[in-house]
Structure formats: structure tokens, C-alpha cells
Write a structure and sequence with these properties.
The chain is an alpha+beta fold. The chain has 14 helices and 9 strands. The strands form 2 sheets. Strands 1, 2, 5, 6, 7, 8 and 9 form a 7-stranded mixed β-sheet that branches. Bound molecules: 2-acetamido-2-deoxy-beta-D-glucopyranose (NAG) (5 copies).
């Protein structure tokens, strides 16, 4: 008993891991892009009412998105300084490596982050020189067996069909959009989202696609979300009809289900990004101190589930993989042993709306992530050797 009590007080000595005596050795950040302009013209046909004009091209990073990502860069820079993580001055390519997907918003997000984290330095943002999606960031079906297809479709249908959460979103959107007077009603006969049918397409080498009310609801709610984050006046978001957190929670269910249905169901270790991370961590001694990868919500989903992390709840957010969120892999050392710690870092709902700067005193939200297969202590540390051996 006495030993136990002493251990509780002196966790440091008993466990050998002291949170305040560890040095940060390497960091890998997997980030989602920041706020983008919603899909403009596509939306017109879903409502009888005019949508507010957009001040930027669909899918590009917004001006505010770039600014908020700059705040993220500044926050990380501050954290790195307190941890004495990087040498003074501008980092070279062996120290900091940045890689983004080919989409304009992912490249611009990487640029905004890195230009703020390393002011007046010229750190390159690497990416493939093509307009197509980089295969590294694709999240598609790999397993070509019938058994797999049956399993996945069963799971998708269970989540998609007659789901009361989706039905609640659909009836709310019927009203918000006044869908009965819309083009999609006149042309495609979809006049009530709760009554139309969804079609699921499952094809090896592609991502799961769902057309019908689910797709419409997802596009529309994503547009509302981006406008909210982008600081638009409330009357210009959903024609002023979403005014409470409860209503936001209700309608954003479709974005959470979009991740679960179309992506989590097909997450596995075979995904190129998961394979890339495994390879990177196996050769981590030769890797740069800081690596930043910028992709999409689907990529964070792919890695969180493909590497088999325990599922987490994100307080103060309605999205499952929020805008600008980051999985932060950290390698710490006590000079004898190394440890892995992984945190999910994201802006809260009100931090985004507010557009406020982050600091060590008012940081972004942070939730510790732990792998299902690595012994993780109460501070989130798992032995580095165990992590790499079991990868
Ligand atoms: C902290 O680290 C220093 C230097 O690495 C070491 O001398 C000291 O014993 C450590 N303290 C604890 C409590 O582990
Ligand atoms: C990217 O590709 C375009 C078109 O193929 C080419 O003109 C341009 O020089 C390339 N840029 C780089 C940096 O390779
Ligand atoms: C493909 O899926 C089936 C059914 O779920 C599974 O038994 C099999 O191991 C999977 N194959 C690979 C290569 O993951
Ligand atoms: C939806 O599917 C059901 C069952 O397959 C069918 O009876 C119904 O007519 C379909 N509704 C529409 C609007 O296509
Ligand atoms: C919103 O911004 C104000 C002014 O910058 C700040 O005082 C406040 O703490 C912010 N609130 C949140 C939730 O970030």
C-alpha cells in the first residue's frame, strides 16, 4: 500500500516518464486545410431562394482561412520555442519538410501555416505538379473481394437507411431550403428529402459515393458551415434560419455521417497515406525534425482509423474532423527512452467564428489520442520502440 501511495505521488520515478522532463525530438503534423469557399453554382438548384453572393471561387481557401491558418502557424511556433524544439533562424530542408495535396486550398493552407511559423523564411511547400488529386491523399476502396463488398455495403446501409438523425436533417433542410419550389424538385422530382432514395456506389479504386438526398444535404450543410466559419452575417447563412447550437448540432449530423458512411467503413492499413506514415516512422531517425502534411478531412479519418486509434470525442465542435484540425504525432525523449504522444488539435466552433488568435494561454482544443495496440500511459505516452515494432 505504502509503495503504491508513494508511486502515485512520484509517478515520475516509478513509471520513468516525467511529462516535464521530456524533450521534444520530432513532430509530424497531418493537417486538414482551413476554411474554403463553398461550392457556388451547384447549390442554386437546391433552393427556391437566392443564395448569397460568394466572394471567392468555390473550393479555394478563403482570405480568413489563410489568416486563421497563420494563427495556427504562430501557435505552433510558440510551442516549439518553449520546447526549444528547433534551432534559431530559418530551418533547412533536413529540418522542416512540408508536403501538400495538389488542391489549391491544401497548398495555400500549408503556405499560410509555414509562412507564419517561420516568418521571413523561404520554406518550400512540396506538392505534385498536376491538377489531379495526389494518389497519396486518395481514400479509396482497396479490397476487391465480394465478402468485403458485402460487409461494407451492409454497414453503409445500416447507417444510411431510415436513420432518424438523417431524417431529422432532411426535414429541417426541406424547410430551410423551401425545396418544393426548387429546381431539383421541378427537374429531378426530389421535393422532399425524407422521401427520396439514396443510391450507393461501390467500386474498387474509387471512394464510396452516395447520391440522392444524402449528397444534397451534405453539400448544403457544408456550405452553411463554411459560411459560418468564414464569419458571414447570420442572416446570410441558411437565410438566417440556424440560430442555436442545438440546430447546428442537428444539421451537422450529416457531415459526421458522411465521414462514417463513405470513409470510416473502408479505412484500412492499405491506404497510401497510412503506408507512407508507417514507412516514415520506421525510418524516423533519418527524417526531418518537423514534417507537415496538408490534405483533407478524409485523410485524418483514414489515418485515425487505418492506424487503429481509439475513437475520441471532440468537445466544442460539431464536425468529426473539423476544419484546420491536425493529428500531431510527437516523439519525446528522456535521453534514455523515446515515447510517442499523439494529440488531435483543432479550433473550437467559437474560435473559428470569432477568428481569434491562439496562444499558449488560449490554445486550440487538444484531445490525446491513443492507439488500440500500444501501451499508453495516462499522459498519452507509449514507448517509441513498441510503437515502431508493432507498426
Ligand atoms: C531530468 O533530466 C535531467 C537531465 O536529463 C536529469 O539529470 C534528471 O535526473 C531528470 N529528473 C527527473 C526527475 O527525471
Ligand atoms: C508544372 O507543369 C507544367 C505543365 O506541365 C509546366 O509548364 C511547369 O513548368 C511545371 N512546373 C514545375 C515547377 O515543374
Ligand atoms: C478483404 O476483406 C475480407 C472480408 O472482410 C477480409 O477477410 C480480407 O482479409 C480482406 N483482404 C485484405 C487484403 O485486407
Ligand atoms: C424508393 O425505394 C422504394 C423501395 O425500393 C420504392 O418503393 C420507392 O418507390 C422509391 N422512391 C422513390 C422516390 O424513388
Ligand atoms: C473572441 O474574441 C475576443 C476578442 O478577440 C476574445 O476576447 C475572446 O476570448 C474570444 N472568444 C473565444 C471563444 O475565442
Amino acid at each position: 500500500m505504502v509503495t503504491k501511495a508513494v508511486c502515485l505521488i512520484l509517478i515520475v520515478l516509478c513509471e520513468g516518464i516525467s511529462a516535464n522532463n521530456l524533450t521534444l525530438k520530432q513532430v509530424l503534423i497531418l493537417s486538414r486545410h482551413n476554411i474554403k469557399y463553398p461550392l457556388g453554382n451547384v447549390l442554386q438548384k437546391y433552393s427556391s431562394k437566392p443564395w448569397p453572393p460568394q466572394d471567392g471561387s468555390p473550393t479555394l481557401l478563403t482570405t480568413r482561412g489563410a489568416q486563421l491558418e497563420g494563427y495556427m502557424g504562430e501557435y505552433f511556433s510558440e510551442w516549439f520555442k518553449t520546447e526549444r524544439f528547433l534551432p534559431e533562424g530559418c530551418p533547412d530542408e533536413d529540418t522542416v519538410y512540408v508536403y501538400a495535396n495538389t488542391a489549391s486550398r491544401t497548398k495555400a493552407t500549408a503556405r499560410a501555416f509555414i509562412d507564419s511559423a517561420f516568418k521571413s523564411c523561404d520554406v518550400p511547400v512540396h506538392h505534385k505538379n498536376t491538377t489531379e488529386f495526389d494518389p497519396l491523399f486518395l481514400f479509396v476502396i482497396h479490397n476487391s473481394t465480394e465478402a468485403y463488398k458485402d460487409k461494407v455495403l451492409k454497414e453503409i446501409n445500416k447507417k444510411l437507411r431510415n436513420n432518424p438523425k438523417l431524417m431529422a436533417v432532411y426535414s429541417e433542410l426541406n424547410k430551410i431550403l423551401e425545396i418544393e419550389g426548387s429546381q431539383v424538385c421541378k427537374q429531378d422530382g426530389i421535393c422532399d428529402l425524407t422521401k427520396a432514395n439514396d443510391t450507393v456506389s461501390f467500386e474498387v479504386g474509387k471512394s464510396v459515393d452516395v447520391t440522392g438526398p444524402f449528397r444534397i444535404a451534405h453539400l448544403v450543410v457544408r456550405a452553411f458551415l463554411m459560411s459560418y466559419y468564414d464569419g458571414k452575417p447570420i442572416q446570410d447563412i441558411a437565410w438566417g434560419q440556424i440560430t442555436t447550437p442545438e440546430k447546428w448540432n442537428l444539421i451537422t449530423a450529416v457531415t459526421r455521417l458522411n465521414q462514417e458512411i463513405r470513409y470510416t467503413t473502408i479505412a484500412d492499413r492499405e491506404a497510401p497515406l497510412v503506408q507512407y506514415l508507417i514507412k516514415t516512422f520506421k525510418e524516423y531517425d533519418e527524417m526531418p525534425k518537423l514534417m507537415l502534411l496538408v490534405g483533407h478531412d478524409t485523410n485524418l479519418n483514414c489515418v485515425a482509423n487505418g492506424l487503429d486509434f481509439k475513437s475520441i470525442d471532440l468537445p466544442n465542435q460539431f464536425e468529426k474532423y473539423p476544419i484546420a484540425s491536425k493529428i500531431v504525432f510527437q516523439r519525446w525523449t528522456d535521453s534514455k527512452n523515446d515515447y510517442l504522444k499523439v494529440e488531435y488539435l483543432y479550433p473550437s466552433w467559437s474560435q473559428l467564428r470569432n477568428g481569434s488568435k491562439y496562444s499558449l494561454e488560449s490554445p486550440p482544443q487538444k484531445v490525446v489520442m491513443s492507439l488500440n495496440w500500444c501501451n499508453t500511459d495516462e499522459h498519452g505516452f507509449c514507448p517509441w520502440n513498441e510503437f515502431v515494432d508493432k507498426l
